[in-house]
């Protein structure tokens, strides 16, 4: 199913109250009522979001863009509701699939929600975001992240490290512990229905399909152009990420 201009107009104009009244209270997803993705930036999460949208449309990119354009960030296609970023709707639980960048410790999800996240080698995640921000700046992009993360850019990666807050730098840790406590984050991640790693992406997708009886297929989004990072800056980055490296190691070993 492709998203026609007419369909986009219809989906955009349905009042919230009417749309909410049309939604099922839950879905039967092999024992779960809904799926929630703890989307940590630059961990292949956007690819995952597109893959789930591809279950209901041949144009997942258009559907994803529409989610961003709609004021309430909610769409329903082929009987399945998707929500992005809207915390009120996410906590209500009336969706087939939802995601946001909100730290998991700030959410209050209903029972019987299949919760999962994808994790990545810490330094690669940060360098990837830096490269993306540089690309946005070079292209004069108006992407919403530039209003906040764009302010961390300077003349070099070293400037970026001076300015980026720990909550983002250690985003994989902070997503699961407000105090950025390694043991607390580990215990919380272990309560998720599933956690996967970007360097074994296909295996993680296979687990989702096996557990939920779905047929999602890997989609890999385009990557930003590579920027050379000086060895000294990489060493400094890895030192700053020490706690997150320990968390990832604990999760890989258990």
Task: Give an overview of the whole structure.
Helices cover 45% and strands 11% of the residues. With 254 residues, it is α/β, with parallel strands linked by helices. It folds into two domains: 5-120 and 182-212, no CATH class; 122-181 and 223-252, no CATH class. A six-stranded mixed beta sheet has the order 2-3-4-1-5-6. Strand 3, helix 5 and strand 4 (97-100) form a beta-alpha-beta unit. Helix 3 (45-53) crosses helix 4 (60-69) and helix 10 (182-190) packs parallel to helix 13 (242-252). The longest helix has 17 residues, at 122-138. It is globular and about 55 Å long.
Give the mean pLDDT: 92
Oligomeric status: single chain
Task: State the secondary-structure class.
Answer: alpha/beta
Gyration radius from CA atoms, angstroms: 19 Å
Overall 3D form: globular
Number of helices: 13
Biggest pleated-sheet summary: 6 strands, mixed
- Approximately how much beta-strand content do the residues carry? 5-15%
| Spatial strand sequence of the major β-sheet | 2-3-4-1-5-6
N-to-C series of helices and strands: HHEHHEEHEEHHHHHEHHH
How far apart are the first and last residues' alpha carbons, in Å?
Answer: 41 Å
Instruction: Write down the domain tally.
Output: 2
